[in-house]
Amino acid sequence: MASNKITITYNKKEYTLEFNRSTAQLTERRGFIAKDIEFKPVTMVPILVEGAFLAHHSNLKSKTVEEIYERLGKKSELVGKLLKMYMDTVNALIGSDEEDEEEGTEKNAGWEASWTEK
User: Fold this and answer.
1) Is residue 115 domain-resident?
2) Is 7 in contact with 16 (CB distance < 8 Å)?
């Protein structure tokens, strides 16, 4: 998986926003549901933004994250990129059928299902 990062400079300090498996999981535990972002943006966007700070700035207070976010321009574009970063992390965990079909992709384990319907 390619690493996707966003760098923000605020008050002469650089902040790196990124998701990994652990931070995506923490973001979900805080209540983030990707499909709800369109219908509950006031709830979901702050959770997504805070989650993006966790990988490199886990000790940053929520109030500081909120302050940084409020000062940023192009919020819609930023949220879209953060959502894509989050989904890329989720998709790396789940994988896809297309990835399995790519040449050169070597898998160490296989699976098959069998059951009897009654």
Assistant:
1) no
2) yes
What is the pTM (predicted TM-score) of this model? 0.80
Q: Which domain holds residue 45?
A: 6-95
- Residue 66's pLDDT band (boundaries 50, 70, 90)? very high
Structure tokens at 70: 């409020």
Strand partners, 6: 17
- Cα–Cα distance for residue pair 2/108, rounded to 1 Å: 21
pLDDT tens digits for range 15-31: 999 999 999 999 999 99
Q: Which single residue is written with the structure tokens 């999981």?
A: 25
- Residue 1 confidence (pLDDT): 45
Query: Domain count of the chain?
Result: 1
Per the domain annotation, does 113 fall within a domain? Answer: no
Contacts of 75 (CB under 8 A, 6+ apart): 69
Residue type, 12: K
Structure tokens given for 99:
């990835």
Q: How far apart are CA 33 and CA 66, in angstroms?
A: 19
CA distance 9 to 83: 20
Residue 112 is assigned to a structural domain of this protein:
no
